[in-house]
Amino acid sequence: MKNNLSNIKKAVKCLNKNHCIAIPTETVYGLAANAYSSIATDRIFRLKKRPKKNPLIVHYLNLKLLKKDCEINDIFLKLYKKYSPGPISYVLKLKKTSLISKNVTNKRNTIAVRFPSHSLTRNLLKRLNYPLAAPSANISTKISPVSKKDVKDEFGKKVRIILDGGQSKIGVESTIINLVGKPQVLRLGGIPQEQIKKYLNAKIKYNEKSKIKSPGQDKIHYSPHIRLRLNIKNANNNEAFILIKKRKKISKNYFYLSKNNNLQEAAKNLYKTLRFIKKKNFKSIAVEKIPSKGFGEVINDRLKRASNFR
Ligand code: TXA
Ligand code: MG
């Protein structure tokens, strides 16, 4: 990997001038900017064509820095000890004294925060005196990027610095859990909700109909902007067919998410495969039925939203 110190130093300079850069994380690549600056965060919304009402996730190096901006509680500390740094975001109360730009929270009194584990991004955070607001580095409603090349596909020359951290290990966004009031999962993601439920021994299940929502959760999303059909037994000949289980006969329109029927590996390969199919110019995608357990649940969530594209 070509990420020597000089690249990180260039990234720091660029961020200090209120520009956006792309950063690798274990979940997906992020489009990052100084979370304390309205100029910098405004640029994120414009580049992504993201509606202002959809708040951003803020990335911190450690707990000490987070405490400057957020109120914490016991459940947060319990989860933090087990899962952070890693693919989980927490919604917490914003402190009145916080320096976070109003753009980030859309003037809410809550904020979504996380501690990425990718070493390159942690190295970058160590050199900054502000946290990074970073949504996924894709144009709004499209597929999240999982490599440097994917980010280039999305933004071309508009994003000048993309730190190369290889392919994202998890490959889907972080799980978001609301910790203001009763804990509840607001977005399925990189840590299966069953695991969190067992660990906390509490009802935290994601519920599409619940009153508390992540504003970014209810539209078309994660979409290659191609028609996508779910739970299909046999695809049409000219259609890309996404599969988990091996079949005896293999056609050239078949795309496997995993070599050995492993749902975590399938989640890691999901966005990469959708992007590849789009590049191959398929006009329609069929997906076989995927079991809704563990990482299968997050795969189905993303595919269902993608299938809302008509
Ligand atoms: O894995 C990830 O979380 C990636 C990487 C780059 O860290 N980031 C990411 O950001 O997925 P984004 O902006 O694509 O998704 C952020 C989600 C949105 O659905 C947004 O509505 C929700 O977080 N969110 C942000 N602040 C919130 C808040 N105060 N309350 C509830 N949901 C919030
Ligand atoms: Mg996103």
How would you characterize this protein structure?
The chain is α/β, with parallel strands linked by helices. The protein has helices at residues 5-16, 38-48, 63-66, 74-83, 102-105, 119-126, 148-155, 193-200, 263-279, 295-306, and strands spanning 21-23, 30-34, 57-59, 70-71, 88-94, 110-114, 132-133, 175-178, 184-187, 227-229, 240-243, 254-256, 284-287. The strands form two sheets. Strands 1, 2, 3, 4, 5, 6, 7, 8 and 9 form a nine-stranded mixed beta sheet that branches. A four-stranded parallel beta sheet has the order 10-13-11-12. The mean pLDDT is 95. Bound molecules: threonylcarbamoyladenylate (TXA) and magnesium ion. Threonylcarbamoyladenylate binds at residues 25, 27-28, 30, 54-57, 89, 91, 105, 108, 110-112, 114, 134-136, 173-174, 176, 186-187, 214-217.
Estimate the global geometry from the Cα principal axes.
globular
Report how far apart the termini are.
Answer: 39 Å
- Name the structural class: alpha/beta
> Which ligands does the model contain, each kind named once?
threonylcarbamoyladenylate, magnesium ion
- Rg, rounded, reads 19 Å
Count of DSSP E strands? 13
Which segments are poorly predicted (pLDDT under 50) over 5 or more consecutive residues?
none
Overall average residue pLDDT: 95
Biggest pleated-sheet summary: 9 strands, mixed
Fraction in beta strands: 15-25%
Secondary structure: helix percent: 25-40%
H-E string: HEEHEHEHEHEHEHEEHEEEHEH
